[in-house]
Amino acid sequence: xxxxxxxxxxxxxxxxxxxxxxxxxxxxxxxxxxxxxxxxxxxxxxxxxxxxxxxxxxxxxxxxxxxxxxxxxxxxxxxxxxxxxxxxxxxxxxxxxxxxxxxxxxxxxxxxxxxxxxxxxxxxxxxxxxxxxxxxxxxxxxxxxxxxxxxxxxxxxxxxxxxxxxxxxxxxxxxxxxxxxxxxxxxxxxxxxxxxxxxxxxxxxxxxxxxxxxxxxxxxxxxxxxxxxxxxxxxxxxxxxxxxxxxxxxxxxxxxxxxxxxxxxxxxxxxxxxxxxxxxxxxxxxxxxxxxxxxxxxxxxxxxxxxxxxxxxxxxxxxxxxxxxxxxxxxxxxxxxxxxxxxxxxxxxxxxxxxxxxxxxxxxxxxxxxxxxxxxxxxxxxx
Length: 383
Fold this sequence. Notes:
By secondary structure, the protein is α/β, with parallel strands linked by helices.
């Protein structure tokens, strides 16, 4: 089958009419940034800020029109405006309002955006973000092994690789191929080692750059949550993009997170960036489950001697300072690197190793904290 072209996408979008103006959205110049990777299509629809909260039906119609093209497997359409609409007033707290509902209302007020039209992940009990203030601290390795540690605890677990620009989970999990569409035009997650996994890396070539603006990234992330058949899960682990930019902030605000795990190395410069991630989650009232110190100690593979290449204990001291739980430390060990590069993560393939036991201990502590949280799960519903 011939590859989808940008012209075909635009022709399909010419069938979508903006009723307020009586013309199709292509003729009105509303369609921008069309990106086509195989059967995956993304684009933005620019609208006036004041109309933004009421344009969801138009956005959905545009997605449906392109989805009808032969060979299209996924479509991401994102509404954008030059200026954000004024934030809605927070919903008043009533006797029927749970604490989590009020928290989500505050998060929505901060975004100035209406929430999604249906629950993003209705069958998932807990969504946990694994984040860092910067790249290069081993966040994805921790996320993969944390998720597999939860699988080892007997939980039903999914892993979402939310790093759109640099997806690494397919390589770390040793998964190749493309997800299959379901009858209702969603995508089945890929699976390995008992872990359901989804990543943009399954949808585009490994060496293909994602040249997308921020709003398109947000739309893609929401689609990877909403339009993937995750099924019933105890935990969905989200490997967040590194840093504290727009993508990270919007994910924290719009996804009903049960909590966040912050990953840092021991040295001062990494901890400085980790504090930024901690403060971001605090501002949007996402609970902090704790801090993990990665690359805590280097263990020589020949003699077993331990060296503190990046220092040691910095993350624990920071956790104590700010009153956040220290979840544990993971050594800098060649076996972790080798198994990650080979797509045979150590927690699944070497479960009795000290490194796997460290990840499993962290996973057990995270689950204990989630299970102890009896608050009502946040709901995201909208006009």
